[in-house]
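WARN no homologs supplied; continuing
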Amino acid sequence: MSEKLPHWNMSVIYPSVESDEYQNDMKACYALLDKTDEMMKSGERLKSVILCLNDALEILSNVAPYAHALLSTDTSNALYTAAVNKIDDLYVRYDATNKAFIRYAHEHKDEYKENEEYSLLFSEIESLVSHQMSPELEALASEFLSVSSSAWDRLQASVTSSIEKGGNTLIELRGMATDPDRAKRKDAFEREIAVLKEHETALCAALNGVKGTVLLLEKRRGWEDPVDRSAFTSRISKKALDALIGALEKSLPLFKRYFAIKAKLMGLDKLSWFDIVAPVGESGKKYSFDDAKEIIVSSYSKFSPEMGAFVKNAFENNWIDAEPRRGKVGGAYDTSFKKARVSRVLCNFDGSYDSVTTVAHELGHAYHDYVVKDIPCLLSDYPMTLAETASIFGETVVFTQMLNKLSREEKLPVIEQFVQSAAQVCVDILSRFYFERSMFSERRKGEVTAEKMCSLMLDAQKATYGDSIDVYHPYMWAVKSHYYGEEFSYYNYPYAFGQLFALGLFKRSEGKSDFASEYKNLLSKTGMMSANEVARLAGIDIEDEGFWLESIEIISSYIDDLESYL
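OK structure emitted
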């Protein structure tokens, strides 16, 4: 594409990591953490301690995403790397205060009734108290993580954003998965596998380091399994997670049917890995970034004028960094700046319909941030499950509005893209869940070789995709950055939760003129309630497998539509 794609404007947040504004906020955050500690030592009321900790968190939630965002667009920049290292130190300092706060709140639980708006926080504190080591060991763990797991995470990001094969970076090669030309997709896939094999030793060491650390610390803290801590962090009951996974497993025959339909639409006997996200139908169509803006703004506006105005502002004020370039991380994300009351979106826009929906997805996150921007940090920290609900709801808004504008022929690639995305979120996510579960099992026994990791990944893909494809991707463990974060294991099922919960919500919105306000209210509660409780606001029981299967039925109807094109 010849179009000049935008870079985000970060100067309204801070001029630079060396600026007085940024450095003063770093100092202010340390000072507020010191003040919080002193308040606890002097036995001040819990309410006062909470207010001070909120103030510290507001600044931390501004400086940290700023440093990380800069590094994500220039991963070899020494200045940004140094800034992120200092953020890691600040997190160690915050973590010590936060753990002390958990103990302090527990010791002052007679004051809980005076602060009822924090009831979810207090409930979680009572659970966390039973999953803490001694203060000395927790302090040591915080320092240890700053020089271990976070370093492994950065190693994976640095390697995967800089390696190349045949003149293309890994990010560029992975982007070719959506190229209409099958020969190009196959060539890019083979080069991707080859370059990952060349660098498997470093990536394998990183994943061993992260998962080994998780197992060590969670055993010490009394968690039976990493999935238990993950469900707790996601604010869903284990019963709800089991219901979701059960529904995903029951959906596999449906998606295998979809893969067979897609193969026929592409004139193939069977799909290979490099065909899974390939376009179908009028696949040559490319969208400019201005096209993406028009589609997203108009679609959001039809659902909610407020949402439409919000995303229009994001486009017009350079909130989005869209250009793929060397040194920039792959994928896409949204990040919010609590003190500045704004968000920023990173993506790698390639003109495909998928990249349009990716922007819609991330702006769904950004709208969620907007809804909670004035709510204190300790009341607005929502889990990944509900974060993904907001983003996929945004995608769904765009998808349904697009269908209303298109002819039958034009609908084919759009419907296929929707089902393809659903397959990724249900089938591929389930394979990642299986892989991570197996990886933890093997890591308990000792170091896991790269060869074994590839074997585990192939087993997971065969269990989910089955014989619907004939070539798999053994190195998916190397390219998915979510595996490399210590703080949240099983960073996969929240996407399936979000997809199916959002579809269920959207179905309930049909025919309700006031649903936009209900939706906004629901988002505003996501930091104050568990996912189970938030779902109940919409009359949904997420512990009922039947709810998840109803959402899958919505996807099934679009698979029926695809079959009509054969």
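The chain has a mean pLDDT of 94.
OK
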